Amino acid sequence: MFLSIFLLFIYLAQSTTTTYDGIIRRSTDGTSYAYLSPPRLGNHAAFIEEIVSSHTLAVAWFSGGEGTPNCSIALSLLQFGSQQFTPGVIVSERVNYSLSMKMKLSLEMLIFYFILEEIFYIQ
Fold first, then answer.
1. Mind listing the pLDDT tens digit for each residue in 38-56?
2. Of 11, 78, 91, 119, which residue is least crowded by CB atoms under 10 Å?
3. What dihedral do alpha carbons 47, 53, 56, 60 form, nearest 10°?
4. Domain range for residue 101?
5. Which residues 6+ apart lie within 8 Å of 13 measured at CB?
6. Which stretch is the leader sequence (predicted)?
7. Residue 25: CB partners within 8 Å, gap ≥ 6?
8. Helix and strand numbers, DSSP H then E, in the chain
9. Per DSSP, what are the bridge partners of residue 62?
């Protein structure tokens, strides 16, 4: 299950033409894309990983302003055989807590890795 998916985390307050429903659509050039519904404004630093045991595609990202107290981690899943991502949900949140902006990117990715492991292996 290899798709060329463009994940767009754009908030458009008055858009009537763009539907943020997570449905995978095909472009005229043959690529596929889906507009995911983010739970908050200010989405950034997406991370995509296949959960090998179930062939589910997990997409995680920071949701909320970068370096602000409302910044949390959101997650959306694409089950094997499905053509629609689940709505984005907050999976990790610490109220009034934000990681230091001086943190290296590699450490941020390590944090994503451990959080995804915790979510999928505790069940």
1. 777 777 778 888 988 899 9
2. 11
3. -20
4. 5-122
5. none
6. 1-15
7. 32, 33, 34
8. 1, 7
9. 44, 73
